[in-house]
Amino acid sequence: MSEERFTVDPERYAQIARFALWALVLIVLTGTAVRVTGSGLGCPTWPKCTETSLYTELSTHGVIEFGNRMLTFLVGFAAFAAFIGALRRRPYRKDLVLLGATLPLGVLGQAILGGMTVRYGLAPEFVMSHYLLSMLILIGAVALDWRARRQPDDEPVRSGPLVGWGTRAMLGLGAITIFAGTAATAAGPHAGASRTGEIVKRLDFKGSETLNFVISQHSKLAAVLGVLAVALWLLARRRGATAPQRSTLTVVCVLLGVQGVIGGVQYKLELPAEMVWVHVALAAATWVAILRAVAAAGRPQERAAAARGSSEAAPA
Fold first, then answer.
1. What is the rounded distance in angstroms from the CA atom of residue 316 to the CA atom of residue 307?
2. Tell me: the pLDDT tens digits for 288-306?
3. In the predicted structure, residue 37 carries a pLDDT above the cut 70
4. Which of 18, 158, 194, 200 could disulfide-link to 38, CB 3.0 to 4.6 Å?
5. At 313, is the secondary structure helix, strand, or coil?
6. Cβ(42)–Cβ(62) below 8 Å
7. Considering only CA atoms, which of 110, 116, 125 is closest in space to residue 31?
8. How far, in Å, CA of 312 to CA of 272, rounded?
């Protein structure tokens, strides 16, 4: 009886996986808020908030940083639930257990890396690594969410070779673009502790021209990414892609378009904190959209198989 009581059905587990995904996105948004509000050292030590207390001092920036740390417990709970739920899901699926295990391990790694980021005074290398690790965790979260809604005996997802391989190329280019974006933030005015008085080192490998250089590289990569996304969107419609393949690419194109507008405006306005937050937050949403597009594309078909499929679909 107890064995049956603590099992999870596939529908409920799909909800758990989706909750874990959005919790991991939420912690990215709040972590970005900590940085752009200059509250990164609102709790100047770790794991305590101050040298003498686990709690924050009564200051705005201390509350912001401490609140982000407390939210980590909620995210950790969601990640742990995704793993335990996979163990208790019936029917049992090893692929979901392995993917579910990546989430609590990733959150643990984030907590440790976040602590090191504080202890090393928000050194840009640690801040960049902290955000990039979040993007890596989201790969596991999106894969878990996607697979939890499919059954092992479902027909494998396929796509034409151009759409399939092009979508995978978009994933790699998107990762490089995000890396360049973290470098731009690390070289910019929002070092993470501007409101708490500490002097924080910024990226300066090109001296005073570092910020303009990394922004230029980031914008070029983003432009190429946008062109590739639109080209794949057009191909998906011309080559008879499935509805999920078309819709996920549409979301990517829309988000990249919005990102382009916000990026240009924030540069003209000399990087106001509010717009930087929106830009970085949308970068996480765009990353999730790209990951979903890759999942929807599935495995690229061989050219011969794709040609046969097109010829068979033509009379219909």
1. 15
2. 999 999 999 998 886 545 4
3. yes
4. 194
5. helix
6. yes
7. 110
8. 54
Model pLDDT for residues 195-235, shown as the tens digit of each residue: 445 556 777 888 888 889 999 999 999 999 999 999 999 99
Q: Fill in the amino acid letter for 128.
A: M
1 token code pair:
């009886």
Q: Count CA atoms closer than 13 A to 47's CA, side-chain side.
A: 6
pLDDT for 311: 44
CA distance 218 to 262: 14
Q: Tokens representing 32?
A: 């970005």
Contact present, 239 and 160 (Cβ < 8 Å): yes
- Please count the residues of the chain: 316
The crossing angle, in degrees rounded to 10, of helices 273-297 and 10-36 is: 150
Residue 313's CB: how many other CB atoms inside 10 A? 10
Residue 135, CA distances (Å) to 38, 176, 285 in order: 22, 12, 10
Dist CA 211 CA 192 (whole Å): 16
Token pair in block for residue 134: 């979040």
